[in-house]
Specification:
Elements (H helix, E strand, L loop, with lengths): L1 H8 L7 H14 L28 H10 L14 H21 L12 H16 L6 H11 L12 H23 L1
């Protein structure tokens, strides 16, 4: 399990060596045989929320437990000092400000008579927005999935794991596509 999760499925996408080492360390800590013992707590030092695997197989009760989880995890949950969150947010803010400063218009003559903002607006309207892909029509997608069928013996093509994954990825793409179009 540790190898599949930390090296192949998720860890294989991590490009920074130190980040991968940290992910593997967390995998060794959290993906182990003891998590299947009753009332196992992932980090007993965290007092705000008891991170454990609920002792149920019912979907509704599992979702209820997930709904009780805090929206923002404490750094202590990961074995870090509480100031780690402050340090992270300061670094993130400084990087954002530097990026904004780097992308501000410079004092250079363009000769076109348009401001930098107008040039960007024109490029967005004439080139980038028309080049955006159209939204998927989910009824057409599901019809194509049904027509493709799939491996025999797996039943309804809509319940084949790869098709479920495809539908989820299309949903995510639709959300990103909508955000990008709205932002542009």
């Amino acid at each position: 399990m540790q190898y599949m999760v930390c090296q192949v499925q998720y860890g294989g996408r991590i490009t920074d060596d130190l980040d991968r080492d940290m992910f593997i360390t967390y995998g060794q800590l959290y993906v182990q045989e003891t998590i299947f013992t009753p009332n196992y707590c992932f980090n007993p030092l965290v007092t705000e929320f008891n991170y454990h695997i609920p002792d149920t197989i019912e979907h509704a009760r599992m979702m209820e437990y997930i709904g009780k989880m805090p929206g923002k995890d404490s750094p202590q949950c990961f074995g870090l000092h509480p100031n780690a969150d402050l340090t992270f947010r300061l670094k993130e803010s400084v990087e954002m400000i530097n990026t904004l400063l780097d992308t501000q218009p410079k004092d250079a003559g363009g000769g076109s008579g348009k401001s930098r903002e107008e040039e960007v607006k024109d490029k967005l309207e004439k080139e980038l927005i028309p080049a955006m892909p159209a939204d998927f029509i989910m009824l057409e997608v599901m019809d194509r999935i049904r027509n493709l069928r799939g491996p025999r013996g797996l039943g309804d093509p809509e319940t084949v794991p790869l098709n479920i994954f495809l539908r989820q990825e299309i949903d995510r793409f639709q959300m990103i596509n909508k955000i990008v179009k709205t932002t542009m």
